[in-house]
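Researcher: Hi, I'm a grad student and pretty new to this. My advisor asked me to get structures for two proteins we've been looking at. I'm not sure of the right format, so I'll just paste the first sequence and hope you can take it from there.
Model: That works fine. Here's the first sequence with its structure tokens right after it:
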Amino acid sequence: MTSQVDETSNLAHPRARQPFNRASKAAMARGRSNSYLAEEHELDDLGASNFDGPHHVSLPPRRRSNSGRLPKYDDEDSGKEGLNYSKNGKRSRGHDDAASSLWQLPPADFRNFSLLCILYLLQGIPVGLAMGSVPFLLKSKLSYGQVGLFSLASYPYSMKLLWSPIVDAIYSPTIGRRKSWIIPIQTVSSIMLLWLGSHVEALLENAESRLGFITVLFFTLVFLCATQDIAVDGWALTLLSHANLSYASTAQTIGLNTGYFLSFTVFLAFNSAEFANKYFRAVPQDSGLLSMSAYLKFWGWAYLLMTIALFMGKTEEKTRDTRMGKNGIFDVYTAMWKIVKLPNVQLFILIHLVAKFGFQANDAVTNLKLLEKGLSKEDLALTVLIDFPFEIIFGYYAAKWSVGNRPLRPWLYAFVGRLGSALLAQFLVYYFPKNGAGPFYLLLVILVHVLGSFMSTVQFVSINAFHTQIADPAIGGTYMTTLNTVSNLGGQWPRVLVLFAVDFFTKATCELDAATATPDQVETFIPFSCAKQAGKQRCTNVGGVCHMKVDGYYIANILCVLIGGALFFSFIRRKVEYLQMLDLSKWRVEK
């Protein structure tokens, strides 16, 4: 699958076709024989995909056989439609019978579309918590570096390429290829959510001492969601008819975004006592309308009920036993290795790994810093809520711009714009009103947030359009997933470093308030650092005042922007222009 929650809907991964042999090449030269088209049409859905936030969309790649060729699958829907070829020789599936709108889907497709939306929504719930709400709740108790450690819980979505071939190759034909994974994963997830619902309040209350355990718990939840995502992606290819297969990405976008939105924006708003007192209560209280415990328990039961309904009410169509075993899985990894050995791919991977460094302080810290300055959680939730429809609109136009011979040109322009957006966000934090955020300041927050989202969305769609263009059709799914995984890692690895840098550069000292301190306290008190959360808490306990002398956020953000700008003008821009002008043969793996 590929979210800001590392960030509009990703482009669907094209399904790869089998390598051409000489006979098939000759057949293509003569107009592509019917037998070749029939062979090419066989559906092969590996299920390996990636995640760049809740809006990421992908379709799984094909896997390779022991003979070194990509094997043919006999899946539920193989042989339903042929393939069309455009004037430039590229392959596309015919959509003459495709529904023109969601409401015109055939009844069977509409039911399966609804099922996909629910499955993707369930995946978005833990992801929204791990990548959205929990870091904000932890910030009041932990330092930025410690929050950075918790961000490791989001890594499984950037690493699932490593185990996706196993999900596709091992299953029970009796239960069904995809249900063999979805049912047990959702069962375990429901148990974990119910257990967390009974213990999460105590864990968050002692977050500093239990940080490792909290991180492991949410890492496991995200790992289960990422694994289920592989299975659901593969099932999406066979649940819908070929003519309406494009609606699988629509289901993914709706489901994941809705789940993430519920767990992040909606939960933070209803968990806020200020929001509840302002809009729902006549008598103010100290707690919000919805606790983390109640929210987790609700979704734990929802997971369990959905799992039972799926097990009893949905029969997966029988398929021939196409389990590959160890050798087939090994062939998929061999194909990945051949891809990353290509010189141009290695250069592209290097660009992916360093290109997002310039935006990390803004992406990871700015919202947390606004909350620290005094912006309420409900105002921040409102900002994200308003930004959501803009992401969809930006994604549509970004896709239109990212066509032609230079699909990365919008990505280059948005790179500079994103650096500028990071500087604007820093000024916004610096000039936070001393009397609190009023309507005008909140409007500025929304505008800067939408601007940053626009630049991020343009980059996201443009880079995926380029991935689609250069992917070798013989191993297209594996090729696309490899590039998307590296792209996500490029946004993950610098984040922990940046969060620790914020703490490192921050200089704050706890001092007594001269107006309230007694002479004995003044004589015995020794000032100490309160840059980290533990020091702030200690300062509060002794009745001191924490004076911020140097805010490490400003230094870290400036350094990120400077490093990002230097990389862009000295290396990234020149190499990207070079890569997008290469002939497609330079991106191909030898057969």
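Researcher: Oh nice, that was easy. Here's the second one.
Model: And its structure:
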Amino acid sequence: MATARNMKSSFIPENPSPFFHYLLSLSPLASLVNSPKKSPRNHKLCTPQNLSLFFLSLILSFTFLGFSILSFLLVSQASSSSCHLSSPSSPFSSPSLKSSEYSPINLVSLLSTTSDDEDEPKLSNSVMVPLPAHGVVRNNVSEEEREFWEQPDGLGYKPCLDFSTGYRKASLKISKEKRRFLVVVASGGLNQQRNQIVDAVVIARILGAALVVPVLQVNLIWGDESEFSDIFDVKHFKRTLQADVRVVSSLPSTHLMSRQTIENKIPYDVSPLWIRNRFFRQLNKEGVLVLKGLDSKLSKNLPYDLQKLRCKVAFHALRYAAPIRELGNQLARRMWIEGPFIALHLRLEKDVWVRTGCLTGLGTEHDDIITKVRESQPEYLTGRLNMTYTQRRLAGLCPLNALEMARLLKALGAPRSARIYVAGGEPFGRNKALQPLVAEFPNVVTKEKLAQDGELSQYINKSSALAAIDYIVSLSSDVFVPSHGGNMGRAMQGHRAYVGHRKYIKPNKRSMLPFFDDTSISDAEFRSIMRKLHSKSQGQPEMRANRRDRDVIAYPIPECMCKHKTGIF
């Protein structure tokens, strides 16, 4: 039997109002909360006056209870209807992150804001957040250098994943699906696989199917046999998407013997209607659908709710596994603690030169090696077959080499003392490939130089894990510059916009390369031209505008980011 103290703690709020005390004094509960252990024997309970007071207090008590429940529901509805994702203490609460607003003491909270014990994590706690941008606090810097480190104006755009009422109602059934299962095989490099995983979740949602944790196909180029759980946090992936699709680790035993036809001939730019018409009946009949080769197959123009789901998967659900995350954060802190830094994604690997049909810039000996490999394996060539190298380069289809990247950075105002983190695989030509960059910017490091003894040993021949580490460090850079388009560049472009519009310089190769070859212009003219060409491509908010070539993951405005005068994000 409950004691008076226990009953009091069960019914009374921590800070009761005077009105509540008044009601409580009239209520029958008062006899349980405040009565002495022994009552006088001659106390009369059933007098007419007492009965009247009893019924009056009962009515008042239920009235108060009704008002309390109504108030609670209104507050809950108001808080859940907001499309903002974080609390006022979130690092997103300020549109521009300055070093003066943060100290190294609270960096740990920025890098590990998600609790593994939460059953339903808030989206504000699941997004991968970079270290804050430094800004320029020194006075003895040139105007060009100050402009180079300056972060773009986010114009008030912040993440908003406010799904429609219809979407949320449908989720009640879809998130509990136990009869139909989608299996997806993701191929390619890490960021190519990320794109396919994003679309796998969306297709599962379209079909109302449960999603089996995606299978990562063995990479033939790099020989990486990593599984999903080696790269990504499976528990976090499931938990973050539990309101959208049901994610399971494997097929149930009842479906293991089901007919499993592998569908790998999906055309490009298919719509949700095409997906349903093509696969829904088959999935209902067989219970299992296996899809392969999803890269860029699903349309980039989807209904708003599905676009928001893409962002939720890319920026919230696909968190890297704890060992990768911890090492990536350690390397990011080592770069960050010494001041602002640049991250370059240099595509100088051997396979890149083979696939693009471009010359390395390292001389005839290296170019001959690439040409022989390309001729023996023509299926790897992804560029246009009828174009010469010069035509490819001037069309912007070739990666910038180290010399071209150094000239661009110098023209845009990067100081010689700038610290540069080079992301990417081992460059073809090794040190010779990076030498022109190091000559202009001596403080060039890679993850191999930044890591301490043994820290990367577990990831030897694990290209996906190494690419994930590059991703984490690059996200925290003050300036990010890709030497070539591609999945890493697009993912970084969108993610940096989503977490506060961090500076992202997108080289305008088509417009700038003719000036690289023009020896008649002075250095001052060259710098002026480069700054003008890139003045509007440095991470400012940019609308996706339903263009077929613009993925919401790279351009999250307006589907996944919106403007708010007030809010908690």
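Researcher: Is there anything I should tell my advisor about the second?
Model: You could mention this: The first helix runs from residue 4 to 11.
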